Amino acid sequence: MRVGILGSGLMGGKLGTLFARAGHNVVFSYSHRRAKLEKLARDAGENARAATPREAARDADVVLLAVHWSRLADVLKQAGDLSAKVVMTCSLPMNASDTALVVAHKSSGAEALAKKLRKAHVVAAFNTVPSEVLFGVFDARRKANRPSLVYCGDDGKAKRAAARLIRDVGFDPVDAGPLRIARFTEPLGLLVAQLAYEGKGGPKLAYRFWRFRA
Ligand SMILES: NC(=O)c1ccc[n+]([C@@H]2O[C@H](COP(=O)([O-])OP(=O)(O)OC[C@H]3O[C@@H](n4cnc5c(N)ncnc54)[C@H](OP(=O)(O)O)[C@@H]3O)[C@@H](O)[C@H]2O)c1
Questions:
Q1: Which residue lies with its CA nearest to atom 21 of ligand 1?
Q2: Edge-to-edge strand order for the sheet containing 86-89?
Q3: Which amino acids bring their CB within 6 angstroms of ligand 1?
């Protein structure tokens, strides 16, 4: 797939690198520094390049939204028309100090995004995993026991694209249902961050949510 990365920081930089290593064509965009995007693209290999948000979105099958919630309006403006695109968001609707969700309970960041982008197909994924474990999970992807990763959305095509990217990064994709399930996965993302960065177990503990089998 052609994947446009909007926000090339901890999440976007790492996921874009792994998508490229898994054989997808990746365009990194949205950083304060063009040189950083170019380095990311060089390091990610021949399937990656750097460009503007508009260029990253234009030819993409899937756009990964990986910005702080406060940058949402700006990055969407720069990206331009996302009609008919699959927009995969890992962005949590956090306040400026990253201490609380600003959308929760009766809605979610993913649903708020879908309302802004009525003609795009929004799917929420990768919001429950700390960026620190992504390379380790990718390196161990051929092992039988993959960690599970939930995703949710209302559009079948978007969900199939997300499931494929989740699998290619090394997780076992678990369909958590419609987009409104993000009301529960986003607080889970916050819990994971607390476990990863404030608990004693560190990031490795935080992504080990195993599926119960009968
Ligand atoms: N980090 C995690 O483990 C994690 C896990 C789950 C979900 N999330 C969510 O994922 C989203 C991204 O998180 P992150 O940790 O990847 O954030 P991050 O490292 O801060 O990355 C954000 C990206 O946006 C760019 N950016 C910010 N302001 C900009 C501006 N004014 N102009 C141009 N570029 C700008 C940054 O540029 P620079 O490259 O110059 O810094 C960076 O590339 C957030 O919503 C977060 O809640 C994060």
A1: 9
A2: 48-50, 25-29, 2-6, 62-65, 86-89, 121-125, 148-153, 172-175
A3: 7-12, 30-33, 36, 66-69, 71, 90-92, 94, 127, 130-131, 189
| 11 Cα–ligand 1 center, Å | 7
Q: Which atom of ligand 1 is nearest to the CA of 132?
A: 3
Q: pLDDT tens for residues 99-121?
A: 899 999 899 999 999 999 999 99
Which residues have C-beta within 8 Å of that of residue 24, sequence separation ≥ 6?
Answer: 1, 2, 3, 47, 165, 168
pTM above 0.85, yes or no: yes
Q: Give residue-wise pLDDT tens across range 126-182.
A: 999 999 999 999 999 998 888 899 999 999 999 999 999 999 999 999 999 999 999
